[in-house]
Amino acid sequence: MYNLKDYLLNKYWDIKKSFIDQDTKILRKKTYLNLIYEIAVQLVGAVIIFIAIMSAFAGKIMVGNVMSYIRSVSLVQSHSQSIMTSIYSIYNSNLYMNQLYEFLELREEKNQGHKKQIVEPIHSVIFQNVSFIYPNQGEQTLNHINVSLNKGERIAIVGPNGSGKSTFIKLLTGLYEVQQGDILVNGVNIKELDMDSYMEQIAALFQDFMKYEMTLKENIGFGQIDKLHQTNKMHEVLDIVKADFLKGHSSYQFDTQLGLWFDEGRQLSGGQWQKIALAGLILGKLLCIFWMSQVLRWIQLQKKKPSILFSVCQKIK
Q1: Domain range spanning residue 220?
Q2: pLDDT digits (tens, 9 = 90+) for 102-114
């Protein structure tokens, strides 16, 4: 559509060439090392055999011993070659596994010091002089933000791209740690809270939400895994988001396979996927947090009231 074929193909071949160059460099290094190693092994073997033959001529050892020396040298040469091949395979594999090793070596941060407080139902969240800056960024994304959020309120965060809306939400949900200032949840600093209990009471739907190529029940139930088999509750939340397109014979088919990865999968539009994600978000959550600027933009363009968004918040409350 955008005549990107030549650009993308050239990009592909450039990347492929860089991989080939890297493999060629590694193979060249391997060849040099193997050559030097083979020369050294052959020289050592030749010297040992020569000494054994001369010793046999001098009568110091028997001819049978010479044959034993020759067989021993041959075995050492063959096994040493296998060792070199294994070392190369390990080195070559390690080049592709470094990032995996770094990820596996990450340790989960544990709460240190005194016991963290369990979060009761959230009544208020207050930002006090909160600032945030990303690494290698000169300017602060958030600069001394002061906001008060109370139970029952419906608040829209509006601003241009790059103004810090996503950062604000990620600080609110605990995905980012507070760098400067304080976030108070029910009057308690968020750093003093047990984050697992805090996150159990909040839900966020971002623009790049996850689409699970699994059943309808699993897509909704992952929002609250303890309610994975509570289809009656799922039926209620699907009615809230008006997901009538999922009904078959007047009832929802929770075993329907979504997506096209597997046989008999059902493909959905972007808006339909969003409704399913929204249903999973509100399943059992106590605090509703929406981050759907594309949906709000569509509402603005259509000049319609965001009935789904508001009714969901009312149901959650």
Answers
A1: 202-316
A2: 778 877 665 555 5
Q: 281 lies in a domain?
A: yes
What is the pLDDT, as a whole number, of residue 285? 61
- The verdict on residue 117 lying in a domain is no
**Average pLDDT, stretch 296-300?**
50
Q: pLDDT at residue 292 above 70?
A: no
pTM: 0.58
Give a yes or no: residue 116 inside a domain.
no
Domain count, the chain: 3
Q: What is the pLDDT of residues 5-23, one digit of tens each?
A: 888 888 999 999 988 988 8
Please report the DSSP string for the chain in residue order.
--S-HHHHHHHHHHHHHHHHHHHHHHHHHHHHHHHHHHHHHHHHHHHHHHHHHHHHHTTSS-HHHHHHHHHHHHHHHHHHHHHHHHHHHHHHHHHHHHHHHHHHT--PPPPPSSPPBPP-S--EEEEEEEEE--TT-SS-SEEEEEEEEETT--------TTSSHHHHHHHHTTSS---EEEEEETTEEGGGB-HHHHHTTEEEE-TT----SSBHHHHHHTTSGGGTT-HHHHHHHHHHTT-GGGEETTEE-TTPBBSSSSTT-B---HHHHHHHHHHHHHTT-SEEEE--HHHHHHHHHHT---HHHHHHHHHH-
